[in-house]
Structure formats: C-alpha cells, structure tokens
C-alpha cells in the first residue's frame, strides 16, 4: 500500500471516530440513565453539548488548521478526543461525563477540517482527489450509520463506558501513524482567526439551548430566563459586530447573501433538528418502550445502514441527474416527513413493523439523499475561493439544528427517570421539523423559479469574494463524487 493511501486511511479514521461518536451513544443512553438515575430531559444534554460545541467551533477549527498547519491541528484534535474519551468512560458523575462530552465536540471540530485539508493536500490531481474525497466521505457515512448498531452491542456486552473506551486504541494508532507519516509543514504567515467570536458563538448556542429547555415552566424559571436572554442578546450583538466591523471576521458577511448557501443552511438546520432527535427517540422507543436489549436494538438497525450505503452508491447519482439538486433535496425531505409520520404511528400503536418502516424511510433513504443534495445545493453558487468556509457553515447549521432540536424534544420527555414512554408530543415535534424543511425548500424552489435562472445572480460585494462566476456554471467538488 502506498504512503498516500495510508495517509488517506489515517485521515479517514479520524473522521470515522468523530462521526461514530454522534450516533454510538444513543443506544447506550438508557444504561447511562440507570447508572446516574437521570430523567430523559437531562440525559439529552450529552448529545446537545457535543453537537453544539462541534458545530460552534468547526469554523475556528478550519481557520486554526490554516494558521498553525493541518498536521498540528489534526494531532491536537485526535489527542484531545482520545483523552476526553478516556475521561468520559471513567467519569464517576454525570456532570463530569457531560464536561468530557462537550470537550469531545471541541476536539471533533479540530479533527474534521484538518483531516479534510490533509486529503486535499496529498491528493492534487482532479480525478484522484475526487476519488479520495469519496473514500473519506464514505468513512464518515459508515461511522454515522453504524453508530447505533455498535452502540447497542457494546453497551450490552461491555457496558456503556466502552462506547467511549473504544475510541482510545483507534485514535492512539492514528496519532502515532500521523506523527510519523505526515509531512512537517512550512510556517505560513496568516492572520489568526477571531477566536473570541467563536467562543461567543458557542456560548450563545448553549444559552439558547437552556432558554428552550426552561421555557415550558416560565413562571418558575423567570428569574433565570431574563439574565439568560440578556446574555444571549449580548452574544448575538458581539458576534454580529465583530463580523461586520472586525479586521479579520470569522465569516465574510457577504456569504450570508448567497441564495443557495442560505437555502442549504436552512435545510441543514431542519435536517439536524430532525435526525439528531430521531436517533435519540428511536433508542428510547426500542429499549424502554418495546423492551429490546441494547444489543438486539442495534442488530435490528443494521440493515438500514447497509441500505443507506447502497442508495448512496447506486441510486442517488441517477436521482440527482433526473430531479436536479432542489428536486432531490425535496425528495429526501419528503422521505423524512413520511418517516416521521410513520414513527408517530409506531409510537402510538407500539408496533415494531411501523418502526422499522420509519427507519427505512429515515436512515435508509432520507438521510443519504438529504445530506448529499443539501451539501451540493449549499455550495452551488459559492465562489471557489470560499467553498471551504461555505461547507463549514453548512456543517455548523446542521449541528446547530441538532442542538436546538433535541433541546426542544427533551422539554416534553418524562422528568421522572422511572417513566420511560416517549409519548405522542415528541413524535409530533419530530414531524414538524421535517415539515419545516419541506416548506423551506418549496419556498426556495418557488423563489428560484420566479427568478427564471440562478446563473445571472449578482452577489453583494462580489469583488471581496474573489470570484466572477457563480459555481452553478462550474464543476463542483461534489460533482465528481456523484458520478
């Protein structure tokens, strides 16, 4: 095996572990609840903190990779992920577990962009790079898709601690190989990223999650809500001020006015809210409502991971050619909505057959179609010089939606750790997330149709974006992956 291919595997394993950890914890949640005597509305913070810290620091991670070098940031991110995985598995209290889980999200925000930069650096020829990115992306998809199944098996036979411990030997090998094989980079003079804006962004996201969590009991929590709202307003003002007035803004404000990027970000928020909440709810339904063991619940969901891979490889490229990007995005979101409705019926009637149909529509079809088409849609009109930051924005939008979505769902979960039923309200909210995604995409499609063509769009501050032609007329990085 060539050195380049080994490096590709190293980078891919880094992203595999990051993606795996988003899903793997879900079927271990009931065991964690029993260990620490937690209610459903409290245990969800394990996912909320991870996705908010991941999404909030992702852009910072990308910029740090540019400033300090992809090798240094990749090694730092993997090392931090290893330490926090070990700490989470050894945690003796829920508060300590929550702290390590949040820092895991920060570590993932360092790993993801630096791993992607490594692939782009070592694979320069167009066809070779497209193939390498395809392999890299497949590791992320496999990690995300297999997480539920592995989480169930591991927590049943080894204990929930091992959903964290399993990362340690994998990351240790990755760190050793990366330290030996990755080239030492030349020091590049570059402006340091606006880290304060990143910290304010994450703080604002966490505060917003707490506000959503406290709203149902407004009278009891009014003394807490008022200062939280004030703090949130301060964070929003500071981030907005620094983006528009700062010398080196975290994000070029002109990017927010690109139609396809705005459409993609909105769709990703809805998708994040839906899918993160779905993973949380299905783990509870299978184990606590339908009384399956974690191992059996994991095995039940294996076929949908395989279906997702088949759809991505053999079916999705043809759908994209026939329906175009927006049509494919709508198809994916309609699959999510249909799956959400079937999931609601499964919860109402406690029927495994309906639950499996929902899993097929959501995990097997909807997620693969949505994630790919939303990614292509978002960067369709982004100037080539800003595709990297545009992609980071979409990932941030996805995790922001996930954090907010699961926070709202948790409000309607049982507050007694002895009470397990999911109930109809969380399932209804799940359907509303998908419905909002469908409405958003229909609105965008209608708006674009009214404009007749997206090819003549003039971008605000186009000169600052260093591009003259919308990427709708150019070959996109995603085009090669879909062929």
What fraction strand? Answer: under 5%
Question: Unreliable segments (pLDDT under 50, ≥5 consecutive)?
Answer: 454-483
Q: Please name the CATH topology of the largest domain.
A: Growth Hormone, Chain: A
CATH architecture tag of the largest domain: Up-down Bundle
Total count of domains: 3
Q: What is the CATH class name of the largest domain?
A: Mainly Alpha
**Rounded average pLDDT:** 80
Q: CATH superfamily membership of the largest domain, which one? A: MFS general substrate transporter like domains
User: The biggest beta sheet, please?
Assistant: none
N→C terminal distance: 25 Å
Q: What is the radius of gyration computed over CA atoms, rounded to a whole number of angstroms?
A: 21 Å
Inertia-based shape: globular
Structure, described:
This protein has 483 residues and is an all-alpha fold. It is built from 17 helices and no strands. 52% of the residues are buried. Mean pLDDT is 80; it is low at 454-483.
Secondary-structure blueprint:
Elements: H1 3-24, H2 29-36, H3 40-43, H4 45-68, H5 70-90, H6 94-122, H7 126-157, H8 162-165, H9 167-181, H10 195-214, H11 218-245, H12 259-289, H13 294-349, H14 352-378, H15 387-411, H16 424-450, H17 477-482
Please give a quick description of this structure.
The protein is an all-alpha fold and 483 residues long.
